[in-house]
Design goal:
mainly alpha; 434 Repressor (Amino-terminal Domain); 44% helix
Length: 120
C-alpha cells in the first residue's frame, strides 16, 4: 500500500509589467485566467525613485559622481590626484554645492569610465 505523499509547496511569484495603459484591463484579465491574482491596489504602487528620494533632487549629478567613484573603488583624494581637480571641489560637487561643468565632466568621465553627460 503506497504511503501518503506530500504535495509540493506552491511557489508564488510577483510580476510587474510596463505597457500601454489602455491594455491594462486586458492584461489583468489574461493573467487572472492563468491563476494569477492582483496583490496591490493602484494606490499602493511605489512611485519613481524621485518620489522616494526627494532629498536628492537637484543633486543627481553629484550623487552619480559619488556612485561612480565608489564603483571604481576610489577615494576623493585618489580621484583628485588622477583628474587634477582639487579634492575639496570634488567634495563640493558630490554634495551639490558646486556645479561640475562640461570640462570637469569630461575629465571625470574618462577617469571613472562613465558617460560625461551623466555629470551634467
Amino acid at each position: 500500500m503506497p504511503g501518503l505523499m506530500k504535495k509540493p509547496p506552491i511557489k508564488n511569484v510577483e510580476l510587474c509589467f510596463t505597457g500601454p495603459a489602455k491594455k491594462k484591463a486586458d492584461a489583468i484579465s489574461a493573467l487572472t485566467k492563468l491563476g494569477f491574482t492582483p496583490t496591490r491596489q493602484e494606490s499602493d504602487k511605489a512611485g519613481t525613485w524621485r518620489d522616494s528620494f526627494q532629498e536628492l533632487l537637484g543633486r543627481e549629478a553629484g550623487v552619480f559622481l559619488a556612485g561612480a567613484r565608489h564603483r571604481e573603488g576610489m577615494t576623493q583624494r585618489e580621484l583628485a590626484d588622477k583628474t587634477g581637480i582639487a579634492q575639496r571641489h570634488i567634495s563640493e560637487m558630490e554634495t551639490g554645492k558646486r556645479s561640475i561643468g562640461k570640462k570637469n565632466a569630461r575629465i571625470l568621465a574618462k577617469v571613472l569610465n562613465a558617460d560625461y553627460r551623466a555629470f551634467l
